[in-house]
Amino acid sequence: MASAREERDAADQNFDYMFKLLIIGNSSVGKTSFLFRYTDDSFTSAFVSTVGIDFKVKTIYRNDKRIKLQIWDTAGQERYRTITTAYYRGAMGFLLVYDITSQDSFVAVQDWGTQIKTYSWDNAQVVLVGNKLDLEEDRQVPTEDGQRLATELGFEFFEASAKECINVKQVFDKLVDVICDKMNDGVSSDASPSPNHKEAGLKDTPRGIQGGCTC
Ligand code: GTP
Ligand code: MG
Q1: 194 in any annotated domain
Q2: Could you tell me if 73 and 37 are in contact, meaning their C-beta atoms sit under 8 angstroms apart?
Q3: Which of 40, 101, 125, 191 is deepest in the core (most CB within 10 A)?
Q4: Which cofactor does it need (predicted)?
């Protein structure tokens, strides 16, 4: 569950924009690890499967604007699906994670994509992430397959490693980028980012996110 500090951060109204993001994908692909690497720059090999849903808050700066990211970490286990899909609505962006050493987790990406289409806003942006890039010797999913599927589904694509801190910040930066681009297009003007969102959209071209993990 969120700590008292995180709850305080979450309640902090001092921001220009709030983006609600969701991390989804099969159990054990590394969703929680990915989030902890991004927000706390930490990693543990122990596997503690997420129960239901949890969140962390991180504030980043872009063009002197304060963007508060509310990042929801969902349980991959099927039995929590009813709870987790209830959080899709209102999410502006998704990290859809699979494990490059697990063909099953990759096959499931189609289903996760369908869940996004079913339960989220039409303009929600998605980055497909092939995690555990450090386990190259156990790879079951070729990079080209990941890239091809992402293109087919209209998603951005990265391979990454929460463990070795490869492409973690880049993935979040890209997701924020595409959300900002969409807002600038005015395409998402009917999809209000959050109840706390103070303005209709970013007015400047988004560049140079600050913050993020230190790796
Ligand atoms: P659920 O909460 O059940 O949905 O799983 P999850 O997707 O949150 O997985 P979690 O982050 O708990 O990670 C599962 C296991 O994979 C843990 O033992 C992690 O240490 C390990 N793991 C996560 N990311 C990586 C990575 O990039 N490389 C390697 N080698 N192991 C990883
Ligand atoms: Mg988890």
Answers
A1: no
A2: no
A3: 125
A4: Mg(2+)
Q: Is residue 208 part of a domain?
A: no
Which of 34, 39, 47 to probe ligand 1 with, by most ligand atoms within 8 A of CB? 47
Q: Which of these, 143, 166, 35, lies nearest to 95 by C-alpha position?
A: 35
- pTM strictly above 0.85: yes
* CA 31 to centroid of ligand 2, rounded, Å: 5
DSSP-based three-state secondary structure for 20 = strand
Strands 53-62 and 93-99 come out as unpaired
Total count of domains within the chain: 1
Spatial contact of 113 and 25, defined as CB atoms under 8 Å apart = no
Instruction: Name the token pair of 52.
Output: 């239901």
Give the pLDDT confidence of 183-200 residue by residue, as tens digits. 888 644 444 444 443 333
| 134, 161 Cβ separation under 8 angstroms | yes
Q: Reduced to 3 states, what is the DSSP secondary structure of residue 156?
A: strand
Q: Is position 2 within any domain?
A: no
Ligand 1 atom showing the smallest separation from residue 35 Cα: 11
* Count of beta carbons in the 10 Å neighbourhood of residue 112: 21
CATH number for the domain including 102?
Answer: 3.40.50.300
Q: What's the chain's average pLDDT?
A: 86
Dihedral angle at the C-alpha atoms of 142, 146, 148, 149, nearest 10 degrees?
A: 140
